[in-house]
Amino acid sequence: MQDKVQKMSPEIRFKGYTDAWVLRKLGDIINVNSGRDYKHLNKGDIPVYGTGGYMLSVDKFLSDKNAVGIGRKGTINKPYVLYAPFWTVDTLFYTIPKTENDLFFISDIFQKINWLSKAESTGVPSLSKKTINNIKVYVPTFKEQQAIGLLLKKIDDLIALQQRKIDTLKLLKKALLQQMFPENGKDIPRVKFNRFSGKWEQRKLGEITNIKTGASDLQDAVEGGLYPFFVRSENVKRSMRYIFDGEAILIPGEGKIGEIYHYINGKFDYHQRVYKISDFKKEQIDGKYILFYMKRNFKKHALRSSVKATVDSLRLPTLNNFPIIVPIYDEQKEISSIFSNLEDNILIFEMKLRSVHLVKKSLLQKMFI
Protein backbone atom coordinates (compact mmCIF):
# COMPACT_ATOMS: atom_id res chain seq x y z
CA MET A 1 0.00 0.00 0.00
CA GLN A 2 1.40 3.36 -1.00
CA ASP A 3 2.56 5.51 1.91
CA LYS A 4 0.54 8.59 2.63
CA VAL A 5 2.41 11.68 1.35
CA GLN A 6 3.36 14.13 4.11
CA LYS A 7 4.48 17.70 3.42
CA MET A 8 6.58 20.03 5.54
CA SER A 9 9.09 22.92 5.23
CA PRO A 10 12.48 23.52 6.91
CA GLU A 11 13.23 26.40 9.28
CA ILE A 12 15.62 28.18 6.85
CA ARG A 13 15.15 28.33 3.07
CA PHE A 14 16.59 30.18 0.11
CA LYS A 15 14.47 33.07 -1.08
CA GLY A 16 12.10 32.12 -3.87
CA TYR A 17 11.43 28.54 -2.78
CA THR A 18 7.99 27.99 -1.30
CA ASP A 19 6.99 24.45 -2.31
CA ALA A 20 6.51 22.07 0.59
CA TRP A 21 9.02 19.26 1.08
CA VAL A 22 7.68 15.79 0.41
CA LEU A 23 8.30 12.62 2.43
CA ARG A 24 9.93 9.94 0.30
CA LYS A 25 11.77 6.67 0.75
CA LEU A 26 15.45 6.72 -0.16
CA GLY A 27 14.68 4.01 -2.69
CA ASP A 28 12.57 6.58 -4.58
CA ILE A 29 15.48 8.99 -5.05
CA ILE A 30 18.61 6.78 -5.25
CA ASN A 31 19.79 3.48 -6.66
CA VAL A 32 21.82 1.44 -4.15
CA ASN A 33 24.62 -0.57 -5.77
CA SER A 34 26.98 -3.16 -4.33
CA GLY A 35 30.76 -3.02 -4.43
CA ARG A 36 32.87 -5.92 -5.67
CA ASP A 37 36.21 -7.58 -5.12
CA TYR A 38 39.06 -5.85 -6.97
CA LYS A 39 41.89 -8.36 -6.54
CA HIS A 40 41.59 -9.71 -10.09
CA LEU A 41 42.25 -6.23 -11.53
CA ASN A 42 45.58 -4.75 -12.60
CA LYS A 43 47.14 -1.57 -11.30
CA GLY A 44 45.89 1.59 -12.96
CA ASP A 45 44.56 5.07 -12.25
CA ILE A 46 40.96 4.24 -11.21
CA PRO A 47 40.57 4.73 -7.43
CA VAL A 48 39.25 1.89 -5.28
CA TYR A 49 37.32 2.94 -2.16
CA GLY A 50 36.38 1.15 1.04
CA THR A 51 34.53 2.24 4.17
CA GLY A 52 37.66 4.07 5.32
CA GLY A 53 38.21 5.93 2.04
CA TYR A 54 40.74 5.53 -0.77
CA MET A 55 42.64 2.23 -0.84
CA LEU A 56 44.54 1.87 -4.14
CA SER A 57 44.09 2.30 -7.91
CA VAL A 58 43.17 -0.25 -10.60
CA ASP A 59 42.68 -0.36 -14.38
CA LYS A 60 38.87 -0.71 -14.53
CA PHE A 61 35.90 1.14 -13.07
CA LEU A 62 32.74 -0.12 -11.43
CA SER A 63 30.83 3.13 -11.98
CA ASP A 64 31.17 6.03 -14.39
CA LYS A 65 28.64 8.12 -12.45
CA ASN A 66 29.24 10.17 -9.30
CA ALA A 67 27.74 8.59 -6.19
CA VAL A 68 27.56 8.67 -2.40
CA GLY A 69 29.33 5.82 -0.63
CA ILE A 70 27.92 4.25 2.54
CA GLY A 71 29.32 1.27 4.40
CA ARG A 72 27.61 -2.10 4.07
CA LYS A 73 29.55 -3.63 6.94
CA GLY A 74 31.85 -2.30 9.64
CA THR A 75 32.02 1.48 9.39
CA ILE A 76 28.47 2.30 8.31
CA ASN A 77 28.19 5.87 9.61
CA LYS A 78 30.70 7.76 7.46
CA PRO A 79 29.14 8.48 4.05
CA TYR A 80 31.18 10.39 1.48
CA VAL A 81 31.00 11.51 -2.15
CA LEU A 82 32.60 9.27 -4.78
CA TYR A 83 33.72 10.98 -7.97
CA ALA A 84 33.56 8.83 -11.11
CA PRO A 85 35.15 6.77 -12.43
CA PHE A 86 35.72 4.60 -9.37
CA TRP A 87 35.56 1.09 -7.91
CA THR A 88 34.20 0.16 -4.47
CA VAL A 89 34.92 -2.97 -2.43
CA ASP A 90 32.13 -5.28 -1.31
CA THR A 91 31.82 -3.64 2.11
CA LEU A 92 30.89 -0.27 0.57
CA PHE A 93 27.61 0.48 -1.21
CA TYR A 94 27.62 3.24 -3.80
CA THR A 95 24.33 5.10 -4.23
CA ILE A 96 23.58 6.99 -7.44
CA PRO A 97 20.89 9.72 -7.41
CA LYS A 98 17.93 9.09 -9.67
CA THR A 99 16.87 11.70 -12.23
CA GLU A 100 15.96 15.10 -10.77
CA ASN A 101 17.87 14.46 -7.53
CA ASP A 102 21.09 16.24 -6.57
CA LEU A 103 24.24 14.34 -5.58
CA PHE A 104 25.39 16.80 -2.92
CA PHE A 105 21.93 17.15 -1.42
CA ILE A 106 21.77 13.34 -1.14
CA SER A 107 25.20 13.39 0.52
CA ASP A 108 23.93 15.93 3.07
CA ILE A 109 20.81 13.83 3.72
CA PHE A 110 23.10 10.85 4.37
CA GLN A 111 25.10 12.88 6.90
CA LYS A 112 21.93 13.62 8.86
CA ILE A 113 20.82 9.99 9.10
CA ASN A 114 21.71 8.07 12.27
CA TRP A 115 23.09 5.06 10.44
CA LEU A 116 24.14 3.16 13.55
CA SER A 117 20.50 3.07 14.65
CA LYS A 118 19.73 1.27 11.37
CA ALA A 119 22.34 -1.46 11.93
CA GLU A 120 21.01 -4.98 11.42
CA SER A 121 23.57 -6.86 13.50
CA THR A 122 24.34 -6.90 17.20
CA GLY A 123 27.96 -7.70 16.33
CA VAL A 124 29.68 -5.94 13.44
CA PRO A 125 27.38 -3.09 12.27
CA SER A 126 25.85 -3.83 8.88
CA LEU A 127 23.28 -2.44 6.45
CA SER A 128 21.24 -3.98 3.66
CA LYS A 129 19.89 -2.45 0.47
CA LYS A 130 16.37 -3.03 1.79
CA THR A 131 17.07 -1.09 4.98
CA ILE A 132 18.59 1.82 3.07
CA ASN A 133 15.78 1.93 0.50
CA ASN A 134 13.09 2.01 3.22
CA ILE A 135 14.54 4.97 5.14
CA LYS A 136 12.16 7.93 4.87
CA VAL A 137 13.42 11.48 4.27
CA TYR A 138 11.94 14.83 3.30
CA VAL A 139 13.03 16.24 -0.06
CA PRO A 140 12.34 19.52 -1.91
CA THR A 141 12.22 20.21 -5.63
CA PHE A 142 15.31 19.46 -7.71
CA LYS A 143 16.23 23.15 -8.01
CA GLU A 144 16.06 23.66 -4.25
CA GLN A 145 18.11 20.49 -3.75
CA GLN A 146 20.75 21.94 -6.06
CA ALA A 147 20.84 25.27 -4.20
CA ILE A 148 21.23 23.56 -0.81
CA GLY A 149 23.73 21.03 -2.12
CA LEU A 150 25.89 23.74 -3.71
CA LEU A 151 25.97 25.83 -0.51
CA LEU A 152 26.98 22.90 1.68
CA LYS A 153 29.52 21.71 -0.89
CA LYS A 154 31.20 25.12 -0.65
CA ILE A 155 31.31 24.68 3.12
CA ASP A 156 32.73 21.16 2.70
CA ASP A 157 35.40 22.58 0.36
CA LEU A 158 36.27 25.19 3.00
CA ILE A 159 36.50 22.45 5.65
CA ALA A 160 38.81 20.45 3.38
CA LEU A 161 40.98 23.53 2.75
CA GLN A 162 41.34 24.26 6.46
CA GLN A 163 42.18 20.61 7.14
CA ARG A 164 44.87 20.63 4.42
CA LYS A 165 46.41 23.74 5.98
CA ILE A 166 46.48 22.04 9.38
CA ASP A 167 47.96 18.85 7.93
CA THR A 168 50.63 20.83 6.06
CA LEU A 169 51.66 22.76 9.18
CA LYS A 170 51.79 19.57 11.24
CA LEU A 171 53.99 17.90 8.63
CA LEU A 172 56.25 20.96 8.59
CA LYS A 173 56.48 20.92 12.37
CA LYS A 174 57.31 17.20 12.36
CA ALA A 175 60.02 17.70 9.74
CA LEU A 176 61.57 20.64 11.58
CA LEU A 177 61.55 18.72 14.87
CA GLN A 178 63.70 16.12 13.14
CA GLN A 179 66.00 18.63 11.48
CA MET A 180 66.49 21.34 14.11
CA PHE A 181 67.54 19.12 17.01
CA PRO A 182 70.67 16.91 17.00
CA GLU A 183 70.33 13.21 16.27
CA ASN A 184 71.43 10.70 18.90
CA GLY A 185 75.19 10.82 19.40
CA LYS A 186 75.62 14.15 17.60
CA ASP A 187 76.11 17.62 19.03
CA ILE A 188 74.84 19.78 16.17
CA PRO A 189 71.56 19.55 14.23
CA ARG A 190 71.19 19.12 10.48
CA VAL A 191 69.59 22.55 10.17
CA LYS A 192 70.75 25.53 12.23
CA PHE A 193 70.87 29.29 12.06
CA ASN A 194 73.96 30.62 10.26
CA ARG A 195 74.63 33.33 12.83
CA PHE A 196 75.07 30.79 15.62
CA SER A 197 78.21 28.68 15.79
CA GLY A 198 79.64 26.16 18.20
CA LYS A 199 78.67 22.74 19.41
CA TRP A 200 75.71 22.09 21.62
CA GLU A 201 76.22 21.05 25.23
CA GLN A 202 74.76 17.84 26.65
CA ARG A 203 73.11 18.10 30.05
CA LYS A 204 70.58 16.18 32.13
CA LEU A 205 67.11 17.62 32.64
CA GLY A 206 67.45 17.41 36.42
CA GLU A 207 70.63 19.52 36.28
CA ILE A 208 69.05 22.49 34.52
CA THR A 209 65.50 22.44 35.94
CA ASN A 210 63.59 21.70 39.12
CA ILE A 211 61.22 18.73 38.91
CA LYS A 212 58.55 17.84 41.45
CA THR A 213 54.99 16.52 41.70
CA GLY A 214 51.91 18.41 42.85
CA ALA A 215 49.92 18.13 46.06
CA SER A 216 46.32 18.19 44.83
CA ASP A 217 43.77 15.51 43.93
CA LEU A 218 40.80 15.40 41.57
CA GLN A 219 38.47 16.27 44.45
CA ASP A 220 40.15 19.69 44.53
CA ALA A 221 38.79 20.55 41.07
CA VAL A 222 36.16 23.29 41.11
CA GLU A 223 34.08 24.16 38.07
CA GLY A 224 34.68 27.82 37.29
CA GLY A 225 37.70 27.96 39.61
CA LEU A 226 40.14 30.86 39.42
CA TYR A 227 43.23 28.92 38.36
CA PRO A 228 44.16 26.20 35.86
CA PHE A 229 44.40 22.78 37.48
CA PHE A 230 46.61 20.33 35.58
CA VAL A 231 45.61 16.68 35.99
CA ARG A 232 46.65 13.41 34.31
CA SER A 233 45.02 14.15 30.96
CA GLU A 234 44.96 16.63 28.10
CA ASN A 235 41.98 18.35 29.71
CA VAL A 236 42.75 21.21 32.08
CA LYS A 237 40.40 21.56 35.05
CA ARG A 238 39.99 24.56 37.37
CA SER A 239 40.89 25.12 41.02
CA MET A 240 40.28 27.80 43.63
CA ARG A 241 43.92 27.76 44.70
CA TYR A 242 47.35 27.89 43.14
CA ILE A 243 50.46 26.13 44.42
CA PHE A 244 52.94 27.54 41.91
CA ASP A 245 53.38 30.85 40.15
CA GLY A 246 55.78 30.96 37.22
CA GLU A 247 56.90 29.31 33.99
CA ALA A 248 56.52 25.54 33.89
CA ILE A 249 56.06 22.42 31.78
CA LEU A 250 53.61 19.86 33.17
CA ILE A 251 53.40 16.20 32.19
CA PRO A 252 51.35 13.34 33.68
CA GLY A 253 53.07 10.71 35.78
CA GLU A 254 50.59 8.05 34.62
CA GLY A 255 49.00 7.29 31.27
CA LYS A 256 50.10 8.51 27.82
CA ILE A 257 53.64 9.12 29.02
CA GLY A 258 55.51 11.33 26.58
CA GLU A 259 52.35 12.33 24.73
CA ILE A 260 50.76 15.01 26.92
CA TYR A 261 52.52 18.31 27.61
CA HIS A 262 51.20 21.52 29.09
CA TYR A 263 53.07 24.83 29.15
CA ILE A 264 52.12 27.78 31.34
CA ASN A 265 53.59 30.96 32.71
CA GLY A 266 51.48 32.06 35.65
CA LYS A 267 49.58 30.78 38.68
CA PHE A 268 48.26 27.22 38.66
CA ASP A 269 47.41 24.10 40.65
CA TYR A 270 48.60 20.61 39.72
CA HIS A 271 47.81 17.00 40.59
CA GLN A 272 49.94 14.85 42.90
CA ARG A 273 50.72 12.53 39.95
CA VAL A 274 51.67 15.34 37.59
CA TYR A 275 55.28 16.46 37.24
CA LYS A 276 56.15 20.14 37.13
CA ILE A 277 59.38 21.07 35.33
CA SER A 278 60.34 24.62 36.23
CA ASP A 279 63.02 27.03 37.49
CA PHE A 280 64.62 27.58 34.09
CA LYS A 281 67.79 29.58 34.67
CA LYS A 282 67.37 33.12 33.41
CA GLU A 283 69.33 33.92 30.23
CA GLN A 284 70.59 30.32 30.18
CA ILE A 285 67.66 27.95 29.66
CA ASP A 286 64.53 28.69 27.63
CA GLY A 287 61.48 26.84 28.95
CA LYS A 288 59.83 26.47 25.56
CA TYR A 289 63.02 25.04 24.07
CA ILE A 290 62.88 22.34 26.77
CA LEU A 291 59.21 21.78 25.92
CA PHE A 292 59.82 21.14 22.21
CA TYR A 293 62.94 19.09 22.86
CA MET A 294 60.91 16.85 25.15
CA LYS A 295 58.10 16.54 22.62
CA ARG A 296 60.66 15.24 20.14
CA ASN A 297 62.72 12.94 22.36
CA PHE A 298 61.25 12.18 25.77
CA LYS A 299 58.87 9.34 24.88
CA LYS A 300 61.73 7.30 23.38
CA HIS A 301 63.80 7.91 26.52
CA ALA A 302 60.92 6.86 28.79
CA LEU A 303 60.42 3.65 26.81
CA ARG A 304 64.12 2.81 27.01
CA SER A 305 63.98 3.33 30.77
CA SER A 306 61.00 0.99 31.14
CA VAL A 307 61.12 -2.79 31.37
CA LYS A 308 57.86 -3.02 29.40
CA ALA A 309 56.82 -2.10 25.86
CA THR A 310 54.63 0.68 27.27
CA VAL A 311 55.18 3.20 30.04
CA ASP A 312 52.30 3.14 32.54
CA SER A 313 54.00 5.12 35.27
CA LEU A 314 56.74 7.74 35.14
CA ARG A 315 59.36 7.89 37.89
CA LEU A 316 61.38 10.92 38.91
CA PRO A 317 64.80 9.41 38.01
CA THR A 318 63.60 8.91 34.42
CA LEU A 319 62.95 12.64 34.20
CA ASN A 320 66.05 13.73 36.08
CA ASN A 321 68.31 11.58 33.90
CA PHE A 322 66.76 12.60 30.59
CA PRO A 323 69.69 13.74 28.40
CA ILE A 324 69.10 17.05 26.69
CA ILE A 325 71.40 18.89 24.30
CA VAL A 326 71.28 22.68 24.52
CA PRO A 327 72.80 25.45 22.42
CA ILE A 328 73.40 28.97 23.68
CA TYR A 329 70.37 30.79 25.08
CA ASP A 330 69.73 33.04 22.06
CA GLU A 331 69.70 30.03 19.73
CA GLN A 332 67.31 28.22 22.08
CA LYS A 333 64.97 31.23 21.85
CA GLU A 334 65.12 31.28 18.05
CA ILE A 335 64.28 27.58 17.82
CA SER A 336 61.43 27.72 20.33
CA SER A 337 60.01 30.80 18.56
CA ILE A 338 59.70 28.87 15.29
CA PHE A 339 57.82 26.00 16.92
CA SER A 340 55.66 28.32 19.03
CA ASN A 341 54.59 30.19 15.89
CA LEU A 342 53.82 26.91 14.13
CA GLU A 343 51.71 25.66 17.03
CA ASP A 344 49.91 29.02 17.27
CA ASN A 345 49.03 28.87 13.57
CA ILE A 346 47.89 25.26 13.87
CA LEU A 347 45.66 26.28 16.78
CA ILE A 348 44.19 29.19 14.78
CA PHE A 349 43.35 26.95 11.82
CA GLU A 350 41.89 24.30 14.15
CA MET A 351 39.65 26.96 15.72
CA LYS A 352 38.55 28.10 12.26
CA LEU A 353 37.87 24.48 11.30
CA ARG A 354 35.73 23.94 14.39
CA SER A 355 33.79 27.12 13.56
CA VAL A 356 33.08 25.98 10.00
CA HIS A 357 31.99 22.55 11.29
CA LEU A 358 29.58 24.29 13.67
CA VAL A 359 28.18 26.37 10.81
CA LYS A 360 27.59 23.24 8.75
CA LYS A 361 26.03 21.41 11.71
CA SER A 362 23.64 24.31 12.23
CA LEU A 363 22.69 24.42 8.55
CA LEU A 364 22.09 20.66 8.49
CA GLN A 365 19.67 21.17 11.38
CA LYS A 366 17.89 24.24 10.02
CA MET A 367 17.87 23.68 6.24
CA PHE A 368 16.59 20.10 6.41
CA ILE A 369 13.61 18.38 7.96
Give the DSSP E fraction (strand runs of 2 or more residues).
Answer: 15-25%
Quick one: CATH superfamily of the largest domain?
A: DNA methylase specificity domains
- What is the end-to-end distance? 24 Å
Shape: elongated
* Total of domains: 3
Mean pLDDT: 93
Q: Report the order of strands and helices.
A: EEHEEEEEEEHHEHEHEEEEEEHHEH
Major β-sheet annotation: 6 strands, mixed
Which CATH top level class of the largest domain fits?
A: Alpha Beta
Architecture of the largest domain in CATH?
Alpha-Beta Complex
**Uncertain runs with pLDDT below 50, 5 residues or more?**
1-5
What value does the Rg take, in angstroms? 28 Å
CATH fold-type name of the largest domain: Adenine-n6-DNA-methyltransferase TaqI, Chain A, domain 2
Strand order, biggest sheet? 12-17-15-16-13-14
Task: Describe the protein's architecture and organization.
With 369 residues, this protein is of the alpha+beta class. It has 3 domains: 20-139, DNA methylase specificity domains (Adenine-n6-DNA-methyltransferase TaqI, Chain A, domain 2, Alpha-Beta Complex), CATH 3.90.220; 152-195 and 327-369, Bipartite methylase S protein (Helix Hairpins, Orthogonal Bundle); 201-326, Adenine-n6-DNA-methyltransferase TaqI, Chain A, domain 2 (Alpha-Beta Complex), CATH 3.90.220.20. 33% of the residues lie in helices and 24% in strands. It is built from 8 helices and 18 strands. The protein has helices spanning 26-29, 103-112, 129-134, 142-179, 205-208, 287-304, 316-320, 329-366, and strands at residues 7-8, 21-25, 30-33, 43-50, 53-58, 67-71, 80-82, 87-88, 92-97, 136-139, 201-204, 210-213, 227-230, 236-239, 244-252, 262-270, 274-278, 323-326. The chain has a 6-stranded mixed β-sheet. A hairpin with a 5-residue loop joins strand 13 and strand 14. The longest helix is centred in the middle third of the chain and has 38 residues, at 142-179. 27% of the residues are buried.
